[in-house]
Structures are given as structure tokens and as C-alpha cells.
Amino acid sequence: MASPATAQLPLVHPQPASRIPNSAVTAPISIVAASPSVKSTFAAFSIRNYRYFTIAHFIAVIALWMQRIAQDWIVLQLSGSVTAVGITVALQFAPTLLLGPWGGVLADRFSKRALLMIAQSAAALLAALMAVLALTGTLQVWHVYLVALVLGLVTVVDQPARQVFVNELVGPVHLRNAISINSSIFQLGGMIGPAVAGVMLVAVGGGWAFAANAVACVFTVTMLAVMRSSELIRSTPAPRSKGMLAEGARYLMRKPAILFSTIMAGFVAVFAMSLPVVMAAFADHVFDAGAGGYGLLNTLVAVGALIGALASTRRKELRLRSVVISAGCYGLSLAVAAFMPSMWSFGAVMVVAGFACLLFLTGANQLVQISTNMQIRGRVMSLYIMVLIGGQAVGGLLTGWLAEAIGPHAALLIAGGVPVLAAVAVGLILARRGELLLKVNLRRPGRLLEIRHR
């Protein structure tokens, strides 16, 4: 039975966008009936299948971060080029940019559980291949490029299925809570993984990080296999028809809450989500902190992100305004970090950046999912993921090139400044549409400037 604190989800099965006025689809969405209790913060854990999923997710995230840090550092050491690190990121995310919507069609038409098992099995084989090459001393940069590209193809299938599968695990009542918990787990793994990877790179080399990820992928497949099928809340598969992708795109374009969340995700993804590329440059070229320092900086980002993810589980309402503001705050924190004189002050700002980034990511993800009908959610989410992950394919190349061409400080300033400008522009657009009100109150200095929903 749903707890009182999570019982209200008015837009889990929304009307078609054509029947909803603009003000309704961008207004605050009430996601709880009262102030959340500590118990309700982890309400989704009451579901057995979701506990299995979360355990596997936690282990997999730690191993994935270990592989990501090891991969980026090994490429930097083999090539001596930050641009090469950016190319690796671009190759891993490019398939989502090009093929992402087709992953959403698969998620709407076929078993999400089966798709995840296939994708994770493929990821295990790729990680095992990288481990063998690294541990035998035969790994070359082109090997990493090729595996990154194939892993990107796996992500095309994995990500939309994973996003929609959460609803089958917990149902609509606990969906918002499960999304926030998943983000918290991802960031907790992001704290542990980079730290372990930093120690491992120094002590035994990066090859064991790939081996650990291979084992974690196998464990995920096992957890998916032992779930109770009878307890899954299955959605009716969408029938095959012409124009399925176009239907998803039209749905996204008609709903401002989804559209503007996706637009902000695009700006953040292209300019600000390739942060590990810039941090590799800062750790190696600016602070001379080596692999351990690189792992530490990633861990500090994850500390802030974990706090942000946990804070998102306490959120009473979903607002488009909040999504836009948190994206702007994330960009602002990166711009401020560009002026920090030491690694410790830089790291402190990275904690703030991680916090703001996760408030944005969880808010946008929740708003897009809860505002979308289940029958089309896979396609809409795949478009959102295409922008969010695919944008990093462009961003990886751009950030790596900027870091080498104009220096890490200027590259980070641009990475933060563009999302700030985008947030301001979207805010002005919403204000002109009559959906946001900017109010200056000279009589109340503590609330001099307010941004309100009409």
C-alpha cells in the first residue's frame, strides 16, 4: 500500500498534450501529499524486485566509475593528449546521439528486462576484453576507441530500457522516489568508484578496474534473472506502426515541461557534462596531482552530487522553474571554479557543482517521466537521453579541444558560462509566455527578487 506521503502523482497518466493548456503542463506538479518523512525517503525499498535491482545497480555503478576513470587516465597516459580523452568520450556517446530514438522504440515494444540482460551481457564481454588487453600490456589507444564505440551501441539499448523498467519495478506511486534513489545510488558509487580507481591505478594498474566491471555486469544479469516476474508491473507493449519516432517527437514538442527540460539538458550535456575531461587536464597540467588527484576530484564532485540526489528525495513539488534554475547554478559553479587558485578550493567548488548538477538531472528526469504517458514513455525518454548522453559526444570533443587550445581555465569558464546564459534565455522565454513572473520587492530586502509561477 502506498504511504500517504507518496500517494499523489496526478500526472503519471496525463491526458494527451493537445487537451492540456500550456499553463497546466508547466505548472508545479505535486508529488507528495505532505512533508516527506524519513521512512518515505526510501519507500521504494519495500519492493523486493527493486531491492534486487538497486543492489546490482550500486555494485555496477562503482565498477563503471572505476572503469571510466581508468579508461580516461590510460588514454591520457598512452597518448599524452586531452583531446584523445575527449575522442574516447565522444565515441562512447555518439551512438546515442545518432541511434538513441530507436532504443526507445525497442523499449516500448519489447521486454525491458530482456533488453537489459542482453545489454549487460554485452557490456561484460567488452569489459573483459579491455581487462585482458590492459593486463597483458597490449592495450593501445585505438583499442579503447573501438571498445568505447561498441559500448556506446550497447548504451542505445540499455538506457531507455533501464529508465522505463523502473516503473515496472515500483509502479507509478513510487516512481519519483525510485528515480531519486537511483540517482543517490549512482552518486554514492561515484564517490567510491573514482577513489578506488585512483588507488588501483597507482598500486596495480587500470586493467583490474576493467575486470571488476566485467564481474559487476555479470552480477547485474544474475539479479535480473532471479527477479519475480509475477511482481513486475508490466506496461502494454506499443504495437508496431509507422511513424513511431515522429509520434514521440511530436509529443515532446507539444509539452513545455518536457520540451524545455530537454533543451536545458542539451546545453548542459554539450558544455558541462564532460567535466571529467577538464578535471583530467586540471589534475595533470594545472595541479600536478596525478592519477590520485584525478580520482579525488571526481570523488568530490560525487560527494556533492550524492547530497543533491538525497535532497531530491525530499522534494515536495516538481517545477520547470527549479529545473532551469538548478541548471544555471551548475553552470555558475563551474565558471567560479575556473578562478580557484588551488586544488583544495577548486575541489570545494566541485562539491557545489555536483550538488547543483544532480538537482538538475533528477528534476529533469522526474519531470519528463511523470509528464509522459506510459505507452509512449520509452520513445520520449530515448529522445531525452539522446540529447543528454548524445550531447556529451559533441561535448567530449569540444571540451578536450578547448582545454588544449585555450587552456583548462578558459575551457571550464566556457563550460559553465553557456548553461548560465541558456538558463537565462529559457527563463525569459517562459516569462514572455506568461508562465513565469519576475517580481522585485524593494520593501523586503531578504526577498528582493522572486521568480514565481503564474
Structure description:
The protein has helices at 22-26, 38-41, 48-79, 82-109, 112-135, 141-170, 175-203, 207-225, 244-254, 256-272, 275-286, 290-312, 320-337, 343-370, 374-405, 408-432; strands spanning 29-30, 317-318, 436-440, 449-453. By secondary structure, the chain is mainly alpha-helical. The chain has one domain: MFS general substrate transporter like domains (Growth Hormone, Chain: A), CATH 1.20.1250. The strands form 2 sheets. A two-stranded antiparallel sheet has the order 1-2. A two-stranded antiparallel sheet has the order 3-4.
Task: Give the helix/strand layout.
Elements lengths: L21 H5 L2 E2 L7 H4 L6 H32 L2 H28 L2 H24 L5 H30 L4 H29 L3 H19 L18 H11 L1 H17 L2 H12 L3 H23 L4 E2 L1 H18 L5 H28 L3 H32 L2 H25 L3 E5 L8 E5 L1
Antiparallel strand pairs: 1-2, 3-4
Helix pairs in contact: 3-4, 3-6, 3-7, 3-8, 4-6, 4-11, 4-15, 5-6, 5-8, 6-15, 7-12, 7-14, 9-15, 10-13, 10-14, 10-15, 10-16, 11-12, 11-15, 11-16, 12-14, 13-14, 13-16, 15-16
